[in-house]
Amino acid sequence: MGMVMELYSVDPRLIDPGEEAQPGAESIRRAGTFVGNLSINSVAIGETCQWMLQTLLAPLVEIQAGSSTSLLVEPHDIAMVIEQVNKAESPTTVAISNAISDAAEEVLWRDQILGIVMS
After folding, report:
1. C-alpha span between 6 and 29 (Å, rounded)
2. Which of 19, 24, 105, 116 has the maximum number of C-beta atoms within 10 A of its C-beta?
3. Residues 28-32: contacts with CB under 8 Å, at least 24 apart
4. Is the pTM of this model over 0.85?
5. What domains are there in the chain, each with its CATH number?
6. What is the layout of strands, in order, in the sheet containing 3-10?
């Protein structure tokens, strides 16, 4: 069983103010505009999680079977995430880097926040 990374451009005004700094997956899906996704096959999960732990994407690694994790990346942190993911070397991490870079362009153009959901 693999994982799916969903990428959203999120208008911060649409996030429920009653939620914590990192809203759940459903809130991001509801408030965001879908801008990309990526499937990670089961063989690459361990390597991918080890790589992600070295980046600002580390909170996404806490995924458990049958659940989702989510992360909002503020515009001022997007450049750092792109810099970190551009150091990817394996085919899977390069694919993640490409997907995040493409989504980040859309998010910055919209002047919004990057929402990431892993499930």
Report:
1. 9
2. 116
3. 28/70, 28/72, 28/115, 28/116, 28/117, 29/117, 31/115, 32/8, 32/115
4. yes
5. 3-118 (3.40.1760)
6. 32-40, 3-10, 113-118, 69-73
Percentages helix, strand, coil for the chain (3-state, rounded to 5) are 50, 25, 30
CB neighbours of residue 61 within 10 Å: 16
Q: What spatial distance separates the first Cα and last Cα of the chain, rounded to whole Å?
A: 11
Q: Residue 114: helix, strand or coil by DSSP?
A: strand
pLDDT of 23 > 90? The answer is no
Does residue 115 contact residue 78 with C-beta atoms inside 8 Å? Answer: no
Dihedral of alpha carbons 103, 106, 109, 115, sign:
negative
Q: Please report the pLDDT score of residue 8 as a whole number.
A: 96
Residues in the chain, total: 119
Higher pLDDT, 46 or 7: 7
d(CA 95, CA 85): 10
Distance between CA atoms of 119 and 2, rounded to whole angstroms? 9
